[in-house]
Amino acid sequence: MLRALWRSPAVAGPAALVERNLVIYRHTWYLLLAEVFEPVLYLLSMGVGIGALVGHVPGLGGGDPSVGYVDFVAPALLATAAMNGAMNETTFNIYGKLKMLHTYDSILATPLRIRDVALGEVAWALLRGTAVTVVFGAAVAAFGLLHSPWAVLILPGSLLIAFAFAAAGLAVVTYIRSWQDFQLVQLVMLPMFLFATTFYPLGVYARPVQIAVECLPLYQSIELVREPSLGVMNAGVGLAALYLLVFGALSMALALHRLERTLVP
Amino acid sequence: MAPALREFCYWMDRYRRVWRGTVVISVANPLLFLAAMGAGLGKLVDANHSGHLTGTPYLDFLAPGLLAAAAMQTGVIEATFPVFQSARSGGNYPAAAATPMRPVDILGGHLLFVAFRVLLSGLLFLAVVVAFGVVGPARALLAAGPVLLTGMAFAAPLMGWAVGVDRQSRLNGLYRFVVMPLYMFSGTFFPISQLPHWLRSVATCTPLYQGVALTRGAGLGGSHPGATAVHVGYLLALTAAGVWAARRSYTRRLNR
Amino acid sequence: MGDESAGAGVLIEAVGLRKVHTPRGGGEATEAVAGIDFRVHRGEAFGFLGPNGAGKSTTMRMVAAVSPVSGGTLRVLGMDPKTHGPAIRARLGSVPQDDTLDTELTVRENLLVYGRYFGLPRAEIRERATQLLDFARLVDKADEQVEALSGGMRRRLTIARSLVNRPDILLLDEPTTGLDPQARHLLWERLFRLKQEGVTLLLTTHYMDEAEQLCDRLVVMDHGRIVAQGTPRGLIAGHCTREVLELRFDDQEAAAGKIRHLGDRQEKLPDRLLVYADDGEDALKAVHRTGVEPLTALVRRSGLEDVFLTLTGRTLVD
C-alpha cells in the first residue's frame, strides 16, 4: 500500500527532484553549518551583550511574567532560521536554476510535470529549512534555552514555517527579472525580520501597529515557536498554525499558476 | 584625463544605471535598524537602567556604532564581489589592462569609486541619524571622516585579496565568518566592556572596533584626543598597508 | 493506449500542425509553424532541413510534448501530446539544441538522476549508466564535473542521457552544430549505430551533408512551411541537375550576360554564379568557348543545398 503510493507518479515525480538536490547536497552539506553559524552568532551576541542591557522581558501572556531576554529571542531566531533556510532555497537557488542553469528545461522533457517540479522543490526547501532548525535548535537546547516539554512542538512548527515560506519564495521568484530585483525582496524581508517581535515583544508598539505586525507571516511563525518553547500553550498557537497553512497553500497555488505560464514555451 | 580617472569613470558609468536602488537601500537600512533596534529595543534597554551604557540612551549609543558597521559593510561588499567579477576573464580588468592603463591605475580608479560609495552611503546614513534627532547636522558632518576611514581600512586590503580569489564561495565565507562576527561583537550593539576579558582584548584589536570608537567619539563627543589619534593612526596604517599590498597583487594578477 | 492506430508503424503523424507565439503582454503574434503535414515511420531517420527560424526546433518541441500545439493535429506514438504528455515523454529521448545538462552534477550523476525522472529503479539505471558512458566514450570522464567537458563530449553526454529510458524515438535538434569535424564524425557514427539498433531518429539540421548522411527521408522547411519532401537522392534528382559548376568573376554582371544560355538553369549569388548542368565539365568548356575567363571554377555534385536554393532562392546558412 505505502509502496504503491511511493511509486505513484504524483509522489515519485517530486521525489525524483528531491533526490537530485540530495545528490548535489552530498557534496555541499557543510553549507548547512554555515547557515546555522549566523543565528548562533546572534544568539551569542544576545546572550553576552544585549541580554544584559535589556534584562527581563515583561508581559508575555499567561506564563512567566518576566522572561530572560535570551530565552525570549532564541525561539524567534529559530523561526527565522526555518524561514531563511527554506526561502533561500526557493528564491536564490531556484532563480539560478530558472535563469542561469536552465535546469528545468531538460527535466520537463521527461515525464515530470511542472507541478512535480514545484512540489519537489518545495519539499526539498522544507527539508532544508527543517534541517537548519534542527541543528540550530540543538544549539539552543545546548545553551539551556528550552524550558518546556512543549518545545518538541518546535519540530512540526518549523516544518510548517518552512513550507509556508518555501511556497511563498517560489511564488516570489516567478516575478523576479534580474538579480537587482532581490534588493526589493530584501526590502520586504528585512523590516519583517526586524519588526515581527524578533527582538522585543508586541507591547512596545501602539495598538494599530500591533495589528499590522500580527498580520505578518513571520510574526505568526515566531508565535508558533515562541509560545511552546516558553511553555505557554494557548489558542494563538493553533491560530498561527492555521494562518501558516493557509498562507502556504495560497502561495503554492499562485506559484503553480505562475510557473505554468513562465515554463511552458 | 589621468588613466586612473578613466577607470573611475567606468565604474561611475556602471553605477549610473543602478544608483536609485542603492540609494533606497542606503536609506532604508539605517532607517529600519534604528527604528527597530534603537527605538523599539531601546525602550526596553532604557527602562532597564543596566548601567552598562553609563546613562546614554540606547538609540544614541547604537546609531554611531551602526554607522561605522555600515561603512564596513559597504567597503567590504564593494571591494570584493565587483573586484572578483572584474578580475575574471571577460571582466573589466583584463579589458582595461589591454589598454595603456597600468594595473596600478586600474586599482586607483576602482579604489576611488569605492571611496565614493562608502562616503555616499555614509552621508545618507547620517541624514537618517539627523532625522532621528540623535545629533545635529554639524556634528553629523564631523562623523563623515571616520566613516570614510573605516570603510577604506576594510576596502583597500580586501581589494588586494579579492583580485586573486578563484571561487565566489570564498567571498561568501569571508562575509559570513569574518564580517558578521565583527558586526556583532565590535561594540556596535553593546559596549565591549560587557565581553569576557580575553574577548575584549581581541575585539579592541579589530578594525571595526577602532572605527566604531572613532565614529562614536565624533558623534557623541567627549572623546579623548589621545584615543582618537590611536584610532585614526590604526585605520590609516591599515588603509596604507592595504593599498601597498593591493598594488602588488593587482600587478601580479593583471600582468600575467 | 500507445498503439500506432494511424497505419502500420507510423510513430508520429502531423496534420495541419501549427504553432503561434503570442508575446506576453500583447504585441503581434508570430506563426512559427504554419500548418505542416508529415509522417514518421518506425525505424526510419527523418530529417527537418532548413535555415534558422524556419520552424524546425518549434516542431521538435511540439513533438517532444514540451510545447503546446496551437492548431492542427499531432499524434505521437498514437497519443495526443495535449492529454498524454507524460506518457509520450516517457518513451522519447530528447537532445535539445543547447546542451541542457545539469551543471551542478557530475557526468555519471547526470545519467543516474535523469533516469530517476523516468521512475526507473536505481539498480537498473546504474547498469544502464555504465553502458551509456561506454557508448558515449566518456568512461574516464565519469566523475568529472560537466563544465570540464569539451563541446563534443557534452553533446555525447546529452545523447547518452536521452537514451537512459531506452526511447522508441530519439529527437535531435541540430545535433552537430558548433562541433569540430572530428567530433561530428564520431557523433554521426554513434547515431548510425542507434539507427541500426532500430531507434527511430527525428533530427533537424541546416547541414546538407548531415541530412544526406543520416536521413532516410526529409522535409525542407522555410518560413514555417514544408517546401519539399522525399529521400535525399529523390529531392536532388527532382529539383536539381546531377552536377553544379561554381564560377567566380571579377565582374559577375558582365560575365553572366555572356553565358546566360549555358546549363539547365543558373543561380546568381552575391559572390559567385552557379550553373546547373548534368555534365559540369562540359559546361565549363562551353564557358571557356565564349571567351569569358572566370577567376575560379569548380565542378561538384549537386546536393541538398542546391535543392534549397532552387526552392527558395536563398542559401541555407547565411
From TrEMBL, chain A:
Name the predominant localization. Answer: membrane
| Domain ABC transmembrane type-2: from-to ranges | 30-262
Task: Specify one Pfam family.
Answer: ABC2_membrane
Any one annotated GO CC term: ATP-binding cassette (ABC) transporter complex
Chain segments annotated as transmembrane:
29-54, 66-87, 122-144, 150-172, 184-202, 235-256
Q: Which cellular compartments is it found in?
A: Cell membrane; Membrane
**Source taxon at top rank:** Bacteria
Q: Which UniProt keywords apply?
A: Antibiotic resistance, Cell membrane, Membrane, Transmembrane, Transmembrane helix, Transport
Give the membrane topology, semicolon-separated if more than one.
Multi-pass membrane protein
Q: Which InterPro entries match?
A: ABC2_TM, ABC2_TM_bact-type, ABC_2_transport, Nod_factor_ABC_transporter
Q: Which GO terms describe its biological process?
A: response to antibiotic
Q: Say yes or no: keyword Iron-sulfur present.
A: no
Q: Does the keyword Cell membrane apply?
A: yes
The Gene Ontology terms for molecular function here are: ABC-type transporter activity
The family line of this record is: Belongs to the ABC-2 integral membrane protein family.
| Name of this protein | Transport permease protein
The organism is: Actinacidiphila paucisporea
Name the lineage: Bacteria, Bacillati, Actinomycetota, Actinomycetes, Kitasatosporales
TrEMBL record, chain B:
Q: Quick check: keyword Cell membrane in the entry?
A: yes
> In what residue span(s) does the ABC transmembrane type-2 domain sit?
21-253
Membrane association type: Multi-pass membrane protein
One GO MF term attached to the UniProt entry: ABC-type transporter activity
| Keyword terms of this UniProt record | Antibiotic resistance, Cell membrane, Membrane, Transmembrane, Transmembrane helix, Transport
Q: Which residues form the signal peptide?
A: none
**Cellular localisation:** Cell membrane; Membrane
Instruction: Give the matching Pfam families.
Output: ABC2_membrane (PF01061)
Does the keyword section mention Electron transport?
A: no
Top-rank taxon: Bacteria
List GO terms (cellular component aspect): ATP-binding cassette (ABC) transporter complex
> What transmembrane ranges does the database entry give?
21-41, 61-84, 111-135, 141-162, 174-192, 228-246
Q: Which GO terms describe its biological process?
A: response to antibiotic
PANTHER family noted in UniProt: NODULATION PROTEIN J (PTHR43229:SF2)
- Family to which this protein belongs: Belongs to the ABC-2 integral membrane protein family.
Q: What is this protein called?
A: Transport permease protein
State the organism named in the record: Actinacidiphila paucisporea
From TrEMBL, chain C:
Q: Which domain of life is it from?
A: Bacteria
Task: Cite the ABC transporter domain residue spans from the record.
Answer: 12-248
GO molecular function, one example?
ATP hydrolysis activity
Q: Does the keyword Nucleotide-binding apply?
A: yes
State where it is primarily located. membrane
Cellular component annotations (GO), alphabetically ordered:
plasma membrane
Q: Which SUPFAM superfamilies match?
A: P-loop containing nucleoside triphosphate hydrolases
Membrane topology field: Peripheral membrane protein
**What are the record keywords, sorted?**
Antibiotic resistance, ATP-binding, Nucleotide-binding, Transport
Q: Name one GO biological process term.
A: response to antibiotic
Subcellular localization: Cell membrane
Which family would the database say this protein is a member of? Belongs to the ABC transporter superfamily.
Full protein name: Lipooligosaccharide transport system ATP-binding protein
